[in-house]
Amino acid sequence: MHERERHRIILNLVQERPVATIQDLVELTEASEATIRRDIAALHVQGRLRRVRGGAEALHPQPISPLAAKPFRISEGENTAKKRAIAREAVALCSDGDAIIINGGTTTFQMVHYLTARRMQVFTNSFAIAEHLIKHSKNQVMLPGGSVYRDQSIILSPFDNDVTRNFYARRMFMGAQGVGPLGVMEQDALIIQAEQKLINQADELVLMVDSTKFQRRSSLILCPLNRVSTLITDDGIQDTARAMIEDAGIKLIVANVAAAEKPPESSSAA
Asked: Which UniProt keywords apply (predicted)?
């Protein structure tokens, strides 16, 4: 990750939390601890944050905070082949006429390439997903109300009285920061609040995570494993992770990355 992007993530996180710890920043940026310490030192010298023991804090905390999550355009380029293979398997679960929820994320975004020829009702909090489907398909697309977080290309609302409660779906498709024995993990409280509202509107929860997510951890639990109906991952999954998923009674679908075809070319729906 480029230094400029690391600095943006660091500055966003210090606005979101009283103290952004070095460990949190290492997990978010996937940089080394030494690199993060150098970044904090440089931003401290520039007067853009205050260096404290074990991390950094904002000089002037904002009333409305950015999200503690990677920008969409950075995450989109990571593990693309795995995400594409997972997305293909996810769309294979759908039929024309289905009502589905697609949570914003770079893995779920890959579904749009396989949804262009479908005719479904899609509720999504992702600007990127909604824009692509509106331009390149005849799927009916609905968006919730709330604040737009441009870096993550999502719409989130802390309020209960938005249109989310008026949409019922057979399945919800979502990614995650990490997956472990305690459940599905995310890094931002507002994201969790919004995702929990969406989960309540679907019969089945389909979790789409590449095999690297089984090694990642976060301090916030979105939901326990037993809430997940189906988990789709790639063929890099290790035996320990496979056993954890199967022991939890979750249907496991393993996507063959090498066999994944290039997604169909997007074109305007006829």
From this structure: DNA-binding, Transcription, Transcription regulation
